[in-house]
Design a protein that fits this description.
Elements (H helix, E strand, L loop, with lengths): L13 H11 L5 E2 L11 H10 L15 H15 L9 E4 L2 H12 L5 E6 L3 H9 L3 E10 L2 E4 L1 H6 L5 E7 L11 H14 L2 E5 L25 E6 L12 E4 L2 H12 L7 H12 L5 H18 L13 E5 L7 H12 L1 E2 L1 E2 L11 E5 L5 H4 L2 H9 L2
Parallel strand pairs: 1-11, 3-4, 3-6, 6-7, 7-8
Antiparallel strand pairs: 2-9, 4-5, 8-9, 10-13, 12-13
Helix pairs in contact: 2-9, 3-9, 4-5, 4-8, 11-13
Length: about 375
Amino acid sequence: MSVSRLDHITPIGVEQMGELADSLDDPAVLRLENLDTDLRPPRSALDFTRDAVEDDDANSYLPFFGLDSIRRAAAGLVGRQSGLEYDWKTECVISAGGLSGVLNVLLATLEPGDEVLMTDPIYVGLINRVRLAGGVPRYVPLIPSEQGWRLDTDALAEINPERVAVALAMSPSMPTGAVFDRREWQAWVDFCRRADCWLLNDCAMERILYDGRAVIHPASFPDMRERVITVGSASKEYRMIGWRVGWVVGPARAVAEVARVSISNVVCQTGIAMGAVATAIEDPDDGIAACARELERRRDLVLEELRDFNPVPPHGGWSLLIDVSSLGLDGPAASRRLLERGKIAATPMINWGGADTGNYVRVVFSNEPVERLRGVGERFRAALFD
């Protein structure tokens, strides 16, 4: 019998689909279910990691809040993106990956029953972390169209801000690839001011942008520095998933509370990984722009291949969504048919927001090269068209 805090914690779906695809042991299966990537980390980070294995200083609990080098680098990165300055000693703490940082922020900012505003659809792992921290998810819709996803700013303006303690914004958003423009960010900012709440900026993929878009950091808006807590990660932009390093940067009063949670949770981060991530952040040849261009190529190909299924174009990130309801299917049924008939592993979006998310399957294009993605449309048609 599970404890009550797990009553509303749902499977994310990726773990089940990934295990099923692994069990087939079939190289012909397209792995479109999980946010892995075949794009390599920066060479400087790989070299640093190899050397760190032999470094006794890396085999330590200390310092609990992260190596000085990674805290300096992370605070500097957020400063450059926002046009602000952050004190790495008091306004940055390192986490064991971005999602660990998100959970630590939620534990440090929520009272039981507080609401957390998020987009719908949204990553179910974020929803589950809100619930684990005692929060209540509250959703504002993302509206799909042939041009992409747009934030429903009218709906956001109508939400009662009284119970909202945190607004959790992610741009590019997962799983949609929605990227907020300045008008949409202004709507987030205006809401946070009305609610007198924190804006938790999950910037795990903020530079993986397409079609010439540029980063807009919410802390750059007037009077928002003291409201915005930024959580970043090496996993997506630097392609360093296995290093499990993230960071929390924000006003000192918030970061001090996050640090209290952090030392009671993971305690410390991976010693051989932190210096490697610091090296990647400081490396002018980090590969982010080149990888974004390659991912854009893959996105464009997948959009063309799947045009019969009306995919909603992502403006950034690693994935896109397909609504299968017009085919008389839901996400789980479509996912099963794609694997059985098309040798495609794709995760259904059930529980990834409101009830309508059950109509979608997610297509991840970060882990398969263009050569293998060609023909994915034919596989979809064979699997989903009777």
